Fold this sequence. Notes:
This protein has a single domain (14-341), classed as Aldolase class I (TIM Barrel). The protein has helices at residues 12-18, 25-40, 59-75, 113-131, 165-171, 188-199, 239-252, 274-288, 290-295, 328-341, and strands spanning 47-52, 80-84, 136-138, 154-157, 178-181, 202-206, 209-213, 220-223, 226-227, 233-234, 259-262, 296-302.
Amino acid sequence: MNMLFERKLAIPMEVKEMYPLTGNISEIVEKRIAELKMIFDGRSDKFLLVIGPCSADREDSVMEYVTRLKKLADKVEDKIFVVPRIYTNKPRTTGDGYKGMLHQPKPDEKPDMFKGIIAIRKLHMRVVQETGMAAADEMLYPENHKYLDDLMGYVAVGARSVEDQQHRLTASGIEVPVGMKNPTSGDFQVMLNAVQAAQHPHTFIYRGWEAHSEGNPYAHAILRGSTNKHGQSLPNYHYEDLMLVNDFYQERGLQNPAVVVDVNHANSGKKYLEQIRIAKEVLNSRRYNESLKKLVKGLMIESYLVDGNQKVGGDVFGQSITDPCLGWEKTERLVMDIAEAL
Length: 342
């Protein structure tokens, strides 16, 4: 086998013993999850915003961002439920480039997976401790979810992972709401197949164990746009797209029909400033149709301290080293505009 096995990593239980939850972290996480479930099952009409950097690349700048975000969230808490986006795993289209804090705790140094596991656990703990908000992360590796499962407030399955059976089965055993993105092809039926699989109980192999899941009734769809065979971005946030997903949901009879619209990625063609316009168009669609008001539960927005992005090793504090993001001033204005429009 052309593969070098460098060392055996600590299992999740061992890492949790090394870095246990302290104080009232567990209670905060449980409360936040309960509030989020109320949004997805219709008991709360608050609007969800999963918002934050494309990648959580540095603990200091991420904490500066979420500290500001907490103050902003407090201003709009009567209408909006804010979940910080703390993405510590980054799928790469070609497999090349910075793969996130899990792989490289310091972006300009070589990968160190054990240090990465510790770094992401400590970061998520700090977010809960210092802001009282449980964060969102992407489940890039299903077998790694247990390292953070006692801290997560929201989990996303990405466009390149949503067709993978292990992601679907693992999502069926997760306690928190899990968003299933449409695949890069844009096929709504594939996305809803994933939602349906995640909502059902399963027996499967997980980390060497025979595992039994009960099904996750809060699994739901995330629309992030698609890419055609010519490499062109095709958005799927328009009124007609939302109505089509609504119809498909009704045909399948799934639990808690819900859509979160990712306003970046292929929906914006990675033109990060377009996120502002797209967010407002989605709100217009919700206002126009009562069915969409019930279906569209929130938005995903990529935002950091400084507009745009830079290369790995750049010296702009709080600017993305992956996809370009909205800077703080534009973010603050957009969130206040969304609150006013709801």
